[in-house]
Design a protein that fits this description.
The protein has an eight-stranded parallel barrel, surrounded by four helices. 40% of the residues lie in helices and 12% in strands. It has a single domain, classed as Alpha-Beta Barrel (TIM Barrel). It contains 15 helices and eleven strands. Helix 10 links the parallel strand 8 and strand 9. It is an alpha/beta fold. Helix 2 packs parallel to helix 4, helix 7 crosses helix 9 and helix 11 crosses helix 12.
């Protein structure tokens, strides 16, 4: 990589198809950006009753709409196709069918067009994919349920996470799925500058999702790597039981300190098992990414960088995606500053905690404050009483009402955990008000000297584009 700060914007095939490749990339270049990240494939407006909502609901995001309409609509349902016929031999060993190739009249390779146009504009090009996300059940040819491949809780079964659908990173079929997906893409686009891998983690949007994965494949891999699996299981069981018997005094202590230890007192041997569990998740993530790096090397793309989109603290540490260790397989880490998710997670984690401790003397407002403290979030305008139902998906023009420190402490913490000097870039999500967008850009400016990414073009109104031009022209 050269020494110029990487300033990038993520885009989708739908945006390229709706506005046109030249229009989108010319607008992006005028902001001062020098890089783009694209997802691959073809996205077209779906027939009524078909496709998936754009923007995605993320469980409870009905208020969420785009700033830049797709084909004249701020909410649209999309159907996704592959731009190139799949290789049947690659998919033969998998229980899922490959993505349907676009019919001839829709088969426009917007990604190739954008790569070529980006070169003319001096923009570096990265391709993004979520290699280990499980296909929808209707794509399964002989698998009765995608649950078989998702992370398993130690109490049995998978969590019905309606955001990520990520598979267990130690499941051999899931790992093969990632290799096949990446192979299909790199065969056509090995000339890009980098690949970005998303959701290579054990997601923790919900607190009970944190208690994964305890499948047989994870047990065997942990044992192979030298972990004491029974100690890990015992420690996680202790944590689970402790979170079901929280006292008001513990909640009060957590409000003051933000320290998990004030919520759950872990005996020394239990703490060791808990730490080993988190370390094992990091090892699992690293090995899954090494698989992908090997695919790139095998297909003539050893020159490209590997980046990851990673959740911010504390979720990054809990999910295993946190912060590359010495000799890791990642060239650049992008830290997600997706604050609308954080606000929703305050509600989800608090409501689950109240359910687990039903009948206790814990006040909902106190546990809400404790959850915010655990997450390291502070509000700019804080009401006297805070309740879980006060949190959720903000409207498209609303401020997320978080202090600058709610963003900067994520990046400070990530830097403190690192053991190497690979770049760490913030990703600022553009789904927020214009004023909030400017405020967050200013807050993370000291951490953006090597690079920053904006997620994504569809949420960049003309007013936000003007803010971005001003920010990058003065930096």
């Amino acid at each position: 990589m050269d020494h110029a700060p990487e300033r990038g914007i993520t885009i989708t095939p739908a945006e390229l198809g709706s506005e046109g490749v030249d229009t989108v990339l010319d607008i992006i270049a005028r902001t001062g950006a020098n890089a783009i990240t694209m997802s691959t494939g073809i996205q077209v407006e779906a027939a009524p009753g078909e496709g998936v909502r754009e923007p995605s609901l993320d469980v409870a995001g009905e208020v969420r709409v785009l700033d830049r309409p797709l084909w004249g609509r701020r909410v649209v349902h999309l159907r996704r196709y592959a731009a190139h016929p799949p290789d049947p031999a690659l998919w033969r060993s998998l229980p899922w069918a490959p993505s349907e190739v676009a019919p001839p009249e829709l088969r426009v390779d917007y990604v190739r067009q954008a790569i070529d146009r980006a070169r003319d504009l001096g923009l570096r090009v990265h391709l993004q994919l979520a290699p280990y996300v499980i296909p929808s059940s209707q794509d399964a040819s002989d698998a009765p349920s995608a649950d078989l491949y998702r992370p398993q809780r130690f109490i049995g079964g998978s969590h019905p996470d309606a955001i990520t659908f990520t598979g267990c990173l130690n499941h051999p079929v899931v790992r093969q799925l990632g290799r096949v997906r990446l192979t299909e893409i790199v065969r056509h686009y090995a000339d890009v500058d980098g690949f970005v891998f998303d959701w290579v983690e054990y997601p923790t949007y919900f607190i009970d999702k944190m208690f994964t994965c305890f499948c047989d494949y994870c047990r065997d891999e942990a044992t192979r790597l030298g972990y004491d699996w029974e100690q890990i299981r015992s420690s996680v069981r202790h944590l689970w039981d402790s979170l079901h018997t929280i006292t008001p005094e513990q909640v009060s202590a957590l409000i003051e300190s933000g320290d998990w230890g004030d919520l759950v007192a872990q005996p020394e041997d239990m703490q060791a098992g808990f730490d080993a569990w988190l370390d094992f998740k990091i090892d699992s993530v690293g090995n899954a990414i090494r698989d992908l790096r090997a695919v790139l090397d095998e297909h003539g793309a050893s020159h490209v960088t590997v980046s990851t989109n990673e959740p911010a603290l504390p979720w990054g540490r809990l999910s295993g995606a946190a912060f590359q260790v010495e000799g890791g397989p990642v060239d650049v880490q992008r830290i997600k500053l997706y604050s609308f998710h954080w606000l929703m997670m305050v509600r989800w984690w608090t409501e689950t905690g109240l359910t687990w401790n039903r009948g206790s003397a814990i006040r909902p407002g106190d546990l809400t404050r404790a959850t915010m403290a655990l997450f390291g979030l502070t509000l700019q305008d804080e009401p006297i009483e805070i309740l879980p139902e006060d949190f959720g998906m903000p409207g498209p023009g609303e401020s997320h009402n978080l202090t600058p420190g709610s963003y900067t402490n994520r990046l400070e913490g990530a830097l403190a955990l690192r053991t190497d000097q690979a770049p760490l870039y913030p990703i600022v999500h553009a789904y927020r008000s214009v004023e909030d967008f400017a405020s967050v850009l200013a807050a993370v400016r000291p951490f953006s000297r090597r690079g920053i990414w904006i997620q994504r073009y569809g949420y960049l109104s003309d007013e936000k584009l003007a803010v971005l031009r001003q920010e990058w022209s003065s930096a």
